[in-house]
Design brief:
The structure holds two protein chains of two kinds. Chain A is 0% helix and 53% strand. Chain B is 0% helix and 50% strand. In chain B, the strands form two sheets. In chain B, strands 2, 4, 5, 6, 9, 10 and 11 form a seven-stranded mixed beta sheet that branches. Chain B has a four-stranded antiparallel beta sheet with strand order 1-3-8-7, with no helix packed on it. Chain B is mainly β. The radius of gyration of chain B is 13 Å and the shape is globular. Classes of the chains: A mainly beta, B mainly beta. Chains A and B meet through β6, β10 and β11 of A and β4 and β5 of B.
Chain lengths: 112, 115
C-alpha cells in the first residue's frame, strides 16, 4: 500500500526566508502527488499536483515542488515566505485504487 | 456554486447515539470522499465513492456507513458513536478519480465531540 511521510511536524521561518517542506512517498509505480494547504479552521486547498511530465511543478501562491523518483520525494519550496503562508501543509499520494492518502502534515510558523 | 457544503458545523453526541453528517456538492462531481482529521495523524480516508451507487472503504471505515443515492449527496453515518470518533470530519469531491490526479475540493468540516 502507498504511504506518505512528512518528517517535519513543525517548521519556523522568518518572513522573507526561503522554505522547503519535505515529503517522501512509498509506492511501486508512478504516483500522483499533491500538496494541499490548510489555514486555521478551514478546509484544504490544492497548491499543486504532479502526475506526469515535467518534474518541476508550479503552483499557486508562488509555491513549486520537484518530483524526484530516485529519492521518492516531492518537496515543496518557496523562495520567499510571507506571513500569510503560516498554515498546515499536507502532502498526498493517489494511485490506481482511487484512494488519496495524506501525510501527517507540517505546521509552518512565520516570524516577522 | 456553493461548492462542497457540510452540515452541521459542530455536534456533541453521547456515547451510543447515532447521527448523520451531511455532505453535498453542486459541481456534478463523480468522486466524493470522507476524511477524519486528528492531531498528529493528518487526514485519514474513511469511505469514498466513484459515482452514484458505488462506495468503497478507505483506511479507517469501522464504525461508519455511507451511501451514494445521488451524485450530489454523500452522507456519513455513525451507527453508535464512541469517544474515539471525536474528530473533525471533512468531505471532499472531485470531477474524476484520484487515479487521474483530479483536484479535490474540500468542505469546511464538521467538528464532532463524543462524550
Amino acid at each position: 500500500a502507498q504511504s506518505v511521510t512528512q518528517p517535519d511536524i513543525h517548521i519556523t521561518v522568518s518572513e522573507g526566508a526561503s522554505l522547503e517542506l519535505r515529503c517522501n512517498y512509498s509506492y511501486g509505480a508512478t504516483p500522483y502527488l499533491f500538496w494541499y494547504v490548510q489555514s486555521p479552521g478551514q478546509g484544504l486547498q490544492l497548491l499543486l499536483k504532479y502526475f506526469s511530465g515535467d518534474t518541476l511543478v508550479q503552483g499557486i501562491k508562488g509555491f513549486e515542488a520537484e518530483f524526484k523518483r530516485s529519492q521518492s520525494s516531492f518537496n515543496l519550496r518557496k523562495p520567499s515566505v510571507h506571513w500569510s503562508d503560516a498554515a498546515e501543509y499536507f502532502c498526498a499520494v493517489g494511485d490506481y485504487t482511487d484512494k488519496l492518502i495524506f501525510g501527517t502534515g507540517t505546521r509552518l510558523q512565520v516570524f516577522p | 456554486n456553493a461548492g462542497v457544503t457540510q452540515t452541521p458545523k459542530f455536534q456533541v453526541l453521547k456515547t451510543g447515539q447515532s447521527m448523520t453528517l451531511q455532505c453535498a456538492q453542486d459541481m456534478n462531481h463523480e468522486y466524493m470522499s470522507w476524511y477524519r482529521q486528528d492531531p498528529g495523524m493528518g487526514l485519514r480516508l474513511i469511505h469514498y465513492s466513484v459515482g452514484a451507487g458505488i462506495t468503497d472503504q478507505g483506511e479507517v471505515p469501522n464504525g461508519y456507513n455511507v451511501s451514494r443515492s445521488t451524485t450530489e449527496d454523500f452522507p456519513l453515518r455513525l451507527l453508535s458513536a464512541a469517544p474515539s470518533q471525536t474528530s473533525v470530519y471533512f468531505c471532499a469531491s472531485s470531477l474524476g478519480l484520484a487515479r487521474r490526479a483530479e483536484t479535490q475540493y474540500f468542505g469546511p468540516g464538521t467538528r464532532l465531540l463524543v462524550l
